[in-house]
Design a protein that fits this description.
CATH class of the domain at 413-532: Mainly Beta
CATH superfamily of the domain at 413-532: Hedgehog/Intein (Hint) domain
CATH topology of the domain at 413-532: Endonuclease - Pi-scei, Chain A, domain 1
Helix content: 40-55%
Keywords: Membrane, Transmembrane, Transmembrane helix
Organism: viral metagenome
Strand order of the largest sheet: 9-3-15-19
Number of helices: 10
Largest sheet: 4 strands, antiparallel
Shape: elongated
Radius of gyration: 62 Å
CATH architecture of the domain at 413-532: Beta Complex
Transmembrane segments: 31-51, 162-185, 197-222, 234-255
Strand content: 15-25%
Protein name: Vint domain-containing protein
Length: 533
């Protein structure tokens, strides 16, 4: 019951609130009527104001066109010739609104414009500073360029006379060399003429001495049958013979010692090839490369599989060389001819004698096959013997010195000969050097002249020996001591264990012997020659 009464009161209050009239409900019509009357009055007043002041407004249109009193009548006051009053009023209104907004935005963006101006000014100053730095560097560059140009000019002014002077000196030197060369050849010619003259005298006097000797011998025989009647004649001829012989001996001594001549010259050792000989050698990647025979090393493998077991270098003095298929070779060296077999170079049908060979040395090789091939003409392979020059007769002589079923490859391992590089030799001037340091044409202690130097591969040799004679020792392989000079009973040969030598050395001399560590030994050729004696 009470609840219904309360609900009725609430609704009554709400209805009372909504049913009560407000101010606008009571006076709204009056208010709108007043507003409309004011607007009409404003418009009419403005219109007549504009009509009364139209000329001053048109004259000051730019300043008056955005006035609130003018804007509604802009089309009536100052419309364009092609615009209606309404269109011009709209355009004027739009322009005024845009102008007002432009001014408002300009004021709003002034801080940003200020910041951008400061940033622009900062970059302008930075650019100015950079331009100043560039100007400094430009001045430095110009200064350096001017300095370099001036320095180069001064240098050229100094060096050009020096260059001209050097050219003049070179020209003068060339002329002096030419003059000295001509003088040298003149002296050599004179020396050769003098040699020939003295040799002619020696031969002439020798002939006279022989004739006198024969005459004296005949007179002695005749005097025997003449019972001494010819004794004065024999005495006279003997005196003449003595008178001729004494000057002859003096002249011979002079010629031998001063002019280094000899009536009989020793035959030159047959050597091998010119330094210009090119040989194909296998490289690490099995590709063949050409090397001069002078540059071949012990252990090199040639194109066709021949392993180099020894390299030889000899004096070229008194050598007679030929050219066969572009290869310069000594006349005594053998090569294989398809029709003639193994022949000496001097007997080859295509040989060309080289009368002038000015190289100081010639070279040869030892190989494990005892031969090697050259291909100086493409497609033409020529087989040459190595230094040992082994043929069937020599192989038969070596039969007992080699193992059963031996081949050419065993000759190096069993018959090669050499001594270790630290072995000491004495020169004629008293100096002592190792055999590995000996040079071609060195003269040893007893006058032995070194004609050749041999370097041998010691890796594949079978044994190393120690040779003792009294208190002196030589270490090597197959060393041949000169038994003509020493007591063989005092020779002690022992096989020894030594650190494996990579190379052994030997010599070739004009006497066939030389001293090592005070012991006289045979030279390299005797190593195989001894089996053919």
């Amino acid at each position: 019951m009470d609840t219904n009464i309360k609900d009725t009161n609430i609704f009554s209050k709400i209805n009372k609130i909504y049913n009560t009239k407000g101010f606008l409900d009571k006076y709204g019509l009056d208010i709108w009527t007043a507003v409309i009357i004011c607007l009409v009055f404003f418009v009419i007043t403005s219109y007549f104001y504009v009509l009364n002041n139209i000329e001053p407004i048109v004259a000051d249109w730019e300043n008056q066109k955005c006035s609130p009193a003018i804007m509604p009548f802009a089309g009536l006051i100052n419309k364009g010739p092609n615009d209606s009053a309404f269109d011009f009023t709209g355009k004027n209104f739009t322009g005024c609104v845009q102008g007002i907004l432009t001014n408002i935005i300009a004021y709003a963006f002034q801080p940003i414009y200020y910041i951008m101006k400061n940033i622009t000014d900062a970059f302008s100053e930075l650019l100015g500073a950079l331009n100043s730095i560039r100007a400094v560097f430009d001045r430095i560059r110009k200064t350096i360029d001017e300095f370099s140009t001036e320095t180069m000019g001064r240098t050229m002014n100094i060096t050009m006379p020096i260059v001209q002077m050097l050219i003049a000196i070179k020209s003068m030197g060339g002329k002096m060399v030419g003059t000295l060369t001509a003088s040298l050849y003149t002296l050599i010619g004179s020396y050769t003429t003098l040699q020939s003259f003295f040799l002619l005298i020696i031969e002439l006097i020798t002939t006279i001495i022989i004739i006198l000797g024969v005459i004296i011998a005949g007179l002695i025989v005749a005097n025997f049958f003449a019972f001494g009647a010819l004794s004065p004649v024999i005495a006279l001829n003997t005196a003449i013979l003595i008178a001729i012989t004494i000057p002859m001996v003096l002249i011979h001594i002079f010629v031998s010692n001063i002019l280094a001549l000899s009536a009989d010259s020793m035959m030159a050792v047959p050597s091998c090839f010119s330094k210009q000989t090119m040989i194909d050698v296998r490289s690490n990647d099995c590709v063949s490369v050409k090397k001069s025979i002078a540059d071949i090393e012990v252990g090199d493998v040639l194109k066709y599989g021949e392993k180099v077991t020894a390299i030889m270098k000899f004096s070229a003095k008194d050598q007679i060389l030929y050219e066969i298929d572009r290869v310069k070779i000594t006349g005594e060296h053998r090569l294989f001819h398809k029709e003639l077999g193994w022949i000496k170079a001097k007997a080859h049908p295509n040989r060309i004698l080289l009368p002038e060979f000015n190289e100081p040395f010639v070279y040869c090789l030892g190989t494990h096959t005892k031969t090697f091939a050259l291909e100086h003409i493409p497609g033409h392979i020529q087989i040459y013997s190595d230094w040992d020059d082994i043929d069937e007769d020599i192989l038969n002589s070596l039969y007992f010195a080699l193992p059963n079923n031996f081949s050419n490859k065993d000759i190096h391992a069993y018959l090669d000969n050499g001594i270790i590089g630290s072995s000491v030799l004495e020169l004629q001037n008293g100096n002592k050097i190792n055999i590995s340091d000996v040079k071609i044409n060195d003269t040893l202690v007893n006058g032995e002249k070194v004609l050749g130097i041999i370097k041998i591969d010691a890796v594949d040799l079978k044994n190393m020996y120690e040779y003792k004679y009294k208190d002196k020792t030589i270490c090597g392989f197959n060393v041949s001591l000169d038994t003509n000079e020493i007591d063989t009973n005092e020779i002690d040969t022992n096989e020894i264990e030594l650190p494996r030598e990579k190379y052994l050395y030997q010599l070739l001399t004009d006497t066939g012997v030389f001293y090592v560590n005070g012991i006289q030994i045979r030279d390299y050729n005797y190593g195989i020659d001894k089996y053919m004696l």
